[in-house]
């Protein structure tokens, strides 16, 4: 099957609360699909993009729930069911502004961390236009080797690379391997998206425009830095574009960055030329749609409920 985008990494279960406030005050939780690359895959599929997903989940009820939910979105899904570890689960708490905190009983020991070089299928990857990856499934040495193997296979096949590190600091005992991994991926990335906080952590740059310039210097073709309620900026070479955030009533910010990436790639993956060669107008349209999708995500509880269908949104 030919794909526009193949997403590779973690698929998890998000357990969403029945009310705002502390987790210990909640009575019920709803199981929903989560995990940044899986969320991006869902967002792309809803926007009409031919999308695949590869990853590792537990050989358990939650793993099978994720397989069912991702397939129901029309995603060409390949999941390895691991008996050694359970599917990852994250409980989400929301404050009055829709900002979230997370608790997981198995964050460091979930099945997605078992991804290994053998989970990279060069033949499947070669049938995609883009490979999209993150960092959270790649904490262990085998996981980091898997990401590097996927990058090598993508480059060998002429497949473009999209990277959103989606950094979760608490997963890493030492940030040095994370920074080294991100440096390798950024050097190979046609498209990269970092939040302003991630730019400071990974690049040492607090200023978003300097961070975007640094990403381009590192080899990124199209560099995006998201700024929360202040919108986002995009840099390609010397071109710098800004777009305001979508004005919405925020319910939950979970997954807004994943929605941004889905909106961005929905344009870039079908544009017919490498991102480095696209007209500035196409990049501006991609940035506007990315912000619009991110805003829609914030209007609903959870990372995927607000992801729009193609008929519901326009550039």
TrEMBL record:
- Judging by the UniProt lineage, the source's domain of life is Bacteria
Q: Which molecular function terms from Gene Ontology are attached?
A: kinase activity
Tell me which residues make up the Carbohydrate kinase PfkB domain: 4-308
A matching Pfam family: PfkB
The answer to keyword Ribonucleoprotein applying to this record is no
Return the InterPro entries for the record: Carboh/pur_kinase_PfkB_CS (IPR002173), PfkB_Carbo_kinase (IPR050306), PfkB_dom (IPR011611), Ribo/fructo_kinase (IPR002139), Ribokinase-like (IPR029056)
tRNA-binding among keywords? no
Q: Which Gene3D superfamilies match?
A: 3.40.1190.20
Q: Which UniProt keywords apply?
A: ATP-binding, Kinase, Nucleotide-binding, Transferase
Q: Which PANTHER family match?
A: HEXOKINASE FAMILY MEMBER (PTHR43085), PSEUDOURIDINE KINASE-RELATED (PTHR43085:SF1)
Membership in a protein family = Belongs to the carbohydrate kinase PfkB family.
Q: What is this protein called?
A: Aminoimidazole riboside kinase
The uppermost taxa in this organism's lineage are: Bacteria, Pseudomonadati, Myxococcota, Myxococcia, Myxococcales
